[in-house]
Amino acid sequence: MLKREQLIGANFSFQHFPFRWAAEKLSAIGFQQMEFWGIAPHLDLFHDNRARLAEVKAILGDNGLTVRCFTPEQVLYPINIASGDSAYRKASVERFMRAADICAELGAAYLFLTPGRGLECESRETAFAHSVASINRIAAHARSVGVSCLLEPLQRLESNIVTNADELHALWRALDGDDIDVVLDIVAMATAGDSVGEYFEKFGKRVAHVHVVDGTPAGHLAWGDGNLPLHVYLAELGAHGFAGTLTFEPFGNGSYALEPVSVWRRCLEAIAPHFDQAEKT
């Protein structure tokens, strides 16, 4: 059954506020653990340094927060681990190896990865091979510093390599090592026409993290702003014995970032009865 403590915070939608402000608000809401989105000005892969990392660690400590996974921005930035341009690809892998070091310093269990995307004019097989090689390098370095990796599929506008559960399974099976776990993003799942059951059929207990978001089916919306049956998905997660973590990822059209606390509180109010029901069964 799902438990309230499985729900963790995140700094999604807080990017226009200082990290200390975001951490204080997440702590006040009641979170003790978070997914850390690696975005400027909080902690991104282009401006991290010893002083900045020390400041972030102090803020986390001051607010009683620990980091479950570090999720560097990797869709909008000039970071692409599967790029058809070898120089960009190499630089991206190097930055993600640094991200693994940041994970270790933050005490995070996971580094969050996506497959990247190939050039639209090259074969998917070429891009797939680049993704596999890059993830293997990153995961090997992460492993050496005591960090595991999470892997999330993307939507077609974001990637031409992995956009559904079948493609994710193929990539996952092609990787070295047995410590790479899987993210179930509800909007990505819905837009691909996949189901919670399919994820558990393919990955079982390796489904370690869930992004709870509403959509139409796309959009990464706050609960209630879309039309996805989130209550059904939560019940299915509970029925499959999901024991990982969940968080919200409200991006929308950018307006959520104007008042992120109210958006998060709205999502918390919507999900609370579902955890209560799960715990009573």
From TrEMBL:
Pfam families: AP_endonuc_2 (PF01261). Transmembrane segments: none annotated. Gene3D superfamilies: Divalent-metal-dependent TIM barrel enzymes. This is TIM barrel protein. Residues 24-263 form the Xylose isomerase-like TIM barrel domain. It comes from Mycoplana rhizolycopersici. InterPro entries: IolE/XylAMocC-like, Xyl_isomerase-like_sf, Xyl_isomerase-like_TIM-brl.
